Amino acid sequence: MKKVRLATVWLDGCSGCHMSLLDMDETILAIAKRVDVVYGPLVDAQEFPKLVDVTIIEGAVSSQDDLEKVRTIRQRSKLVVALGDCAVTANVPGMRNQIPPRKLLERIYVEGADQCRGVPAEGVPALLRQAVPVQEVVKVDLHVPGCPPPAQAIAYVLTELVEGRIPDLKSKVKFG
Ligand code: SF4
Fold first, then answer.
1. Cα–Cα distance between 165 and 79 in angstroms, integer?
2. Residue of the CA atom closest to atom 5 of ligand 1
3. Which of the residues in the chain have pLDDT under 70?
């Protein structure tokens, strides 16, 4: 049986959703037999590959890099899943949205620094004016809320997706 090409992506999130994904106990073994993980924090691929069947995105879209990445992901993925409240609503990353990015960066790198004060000009992705949910940038096929979503819900989602079904998440997940 052909394996499902699965990617997982970590944008502006705390990694808690990926931790929950890894917390599926023995279900992860059954799923691992059905998928090829072609991209994500757990594999070494540097560039997002083509012809991905399912991409799971954790985190909000917060920087210019996130924006470009998520557009590439959409072009190269059959199915895009927003995993967790940050991807679904912007959640915690969205808490900065009332503060202009320049002011925020100066608060952290100038006012809040004991040494080497100064907003870095290189090597740091430019922040977008606001952190936004994935669906504000590209079409999302499935939203899985939760902070993080419970491991059992993620296991159910993946089990259904590898069987070629769209999971019915009613009563299985909630925000927060
Ligand atoms: S939804 Fe919660 S657990 Fe997931 S990345 Fe955001 S803050 Fe972390």
1. 11
2. 13
3. none
Q: How many CA atoms lie within 13 A of 15 on its CB side?
A: 5
CA 20 to CA 17: how far, in whole Å? Answer: 5
Q: How high is the pLDDT of residue 144?
A: 97
For each of the domains in the chain, give its residue range(s) and CATH number, in order of start: 4-95+131-162 (3.40.50.700)
Strand-pair partners of 164: none
* Of residues 129, 138, 139, 135, the one with CA closest to residue 96: 129
What CA–CA distance (Å, rounded) separates 36 from 119?
Answer: 40
Ligand 1: residue of 17, 88, 132, 175 to mutate (most ligand atoms within 8 A of CB) is 17
Whose tokens are 């620094």? That residue is 113
pLDDT at 172 (0 to 100):
82
Span 37-70, pLDDT tens digits: 999 998 988 899 999 999 999 999 999 999 999 9
Neighbouring C-beta atoms of residue 3, cutoff 10 Å? 14
Task: Output the pTM of the full model.
Answer: 0.95
Using DSSP's 3-state secondary structure scheme, residue 37 falls into: strand
> Residue length, the chain?
176
